[in-house]
Here is the input.
Amino acid sequence: MNLALHRSPLQRLSPSLDGIAFHHESRPDDDQQFALQWLGTAGFRLQLHGRHLWFDPHLSRHSLAELAFGKIAPVTSRVLAQVDAADGVLVGHSHFDHAIDAPVLAQHFGAQVYGAADTLTYCRGQGVPEAQLHLLAGDLATHALGPFEIGARRSVHSPFALGHVPFPGQILKQFQVPAHASAWRVGQVLIPHVTAAVAAGQRVTIAHVGSAALIDAELRGLQADIVLACTIGRHATPNFTHRLLDALAPKLVVPCHWDQFWRPIDAPVRQIPSNDLAGFLMEVAAHRSAPRVRVLPILGWTTLADAIDAR
Ligand SMILES: [Zn+2]
Here is the structure.
């Protein structure tokens, strides 16, 4: 992160990521390890005791031309190239870059899907059995899945498109794919959270903030050891980084949703113009709690035990 701090504001907005210090770690070979993988966009895999929980997996990664002018559908081969096990999928809101691939994990791996009514309606339309669909209402209810306890708080979407949320509204009816990207309306926005029973007496909470916005009061009482934080669009939410760290008091922050998600997953990573990842890292470093930060490369891993040890 050091070099990033010395870039000019203009340099920080360019797609190049010169000076960003990526965390490099190979995939833990032991399924018992408590570890996290970033998938690009707001997608993550959480691995614990041989169980795999996915947040907003977006692996289909359509091109800009397809997104703007075409119709899109999950690209099963791209999803299966990265997913080898899935017990659960959490979806924070139902825009295509968060929700589109959830049905593939449900159908190929039997994953349970957790999301707002909009996401569940989309999945139902793709034939996901009702028994695998679990509503996250944003209240204090939780769902147990192996070593994980799953819940969500209500949130909002960053109004980053000239003050507006793209594709507003709800998904009230099932629809068939391929469909225009706009078919995936934003729906109810959530901040899903998971508490993992890592070891006897050790519980770790992870919060997934898939859009750079929040409702401070909705997060009251929720402390998250690890925050997976969307960075694109945060400039449209006043004081986003500071408020997020104030509300959740994490020990570790992993930024996400900064890459150009319309590029193939194996293409050199570029940040979304205007994202300013370096600026986000500076905002985190300037917060009085000074949590650790790990910037992962796409498909990169980090083990979590050392990252959340008491400091
Ligand atoms: Zn969105």
